[in-house]
Amino acid sequence: MKRTDSRCATPHTQHHERRRFAWLGLVLLLIAGPLVALPRIGRAQEGSAPLVVFIQGRRPLNTTGISNIGPEGLSKLADIFRDLGADVVYRNITEPLPENTTAVVLVRPLRAIGTVEAARLWTYLEAGGNLLIALDPENTFLSSPSVRATNIRSRIGRGALSELFDADYGIRPYDTLAAEPGFSASTVRTIQTMFSVAWADASPNLLTAPLQQYHLPIWVWGARHMRVEPFVIGGQALPLIHTDTAFGETNPDIFPTGTTALDAATAQIELNLDQDYTGRLNLGAVGTDPRTGSRLAVLGDSEMLQNGFGLVSSGPTPRYPGNWILVERLAAWLLETPEDEWPKLPEGFSWITVDGEG
What we know:
Blueprint: H1 12-32, E1 51-55, H2 75-83, E2 87-91, E3 101-107, H3 115-126, E4 130-134, E5 141-142, E6 150-151, H4 160-169, E7 171-173, E8 177-179, E9 195-200, H5 209-214, E10 217-221, E11 226-228, E12 231-232, E13 235-243, E14 247-249, E15 281-289, E16 294-299, E17 313-314, E18 317-318, H6 321-334
Parallel strand pairs: 1-2, 1-3, 3-4, 4-16
Antiparallel strand pairs: 5-6, 7-11, 8-14, 9-10, 9-13, 12-13, 13-15, 15-16, 17-18
Helix pairs in contact: 1-3, 1-4
């Protein structure tokens, strides 16, 4: 079976040990005190609109959210869910989720996803909910009025959540930057100059079928990569998008730190074969758990979902149609909308084929 990254598979014994210890930490925390009332299975009741909850709030995670209508906000993503018939609200991760929450969206946490936050999200998934999570590379430097020049430190690679995603869904995010040939110490000083193009994976997948057929690119602005296992015990995963031209830089010191974008990084971007990842790098994936009915989408870049980046538009027409199509279909999948009701094309576009080629 073709693997989807260049490293060897983790032995099943280690796989189960990691999952056991990750679960042990969450179980001990849950025993210590109730974290959240178990929501009902994440599907709307018949006749009611599905409910999508965006996780936002400066503490404890400082995520981007729908209340931000600026370039880094998610208000356009919220509108996509609304256009699909969903009700959209936002909550802090410290608050209980509303009953009948169909999908939870967590994008660009700047601070560590600790054991408490991981347990809340995992409790929701175990109850049959659906989750979209977008995680930028560790220590990515952000410089903008809304985040006031800071570094991303989600610590996803060091926490239990990544282990649990791996064990039950076959998706494991790595703490890397997908470094394209043109990347340098100067290009990674700002998000705007850290862009690259990804492509839909060739695996049969309804989410990316139009992108595959017409070879549409997906733009990302600094992304981490992930391992995707097609089959794991109890679950199944599919890669969404990838790059063949980048390597996975593992050194977080390539990014500047401090209070201004002029602060120098302490390391250069360079390929070290004994430390970095090479080959096809997956930048996004989806997984399902038939046991619970839950659905998980993991993206290695948050900008592809943000107003002024992947979802930027000129009036109603998106600048990056590949991004818009993927996000719309991903939202419909998370809402469990029947396929024949999925959005077709963004406004202002038509499919044209010449001699059978897109």
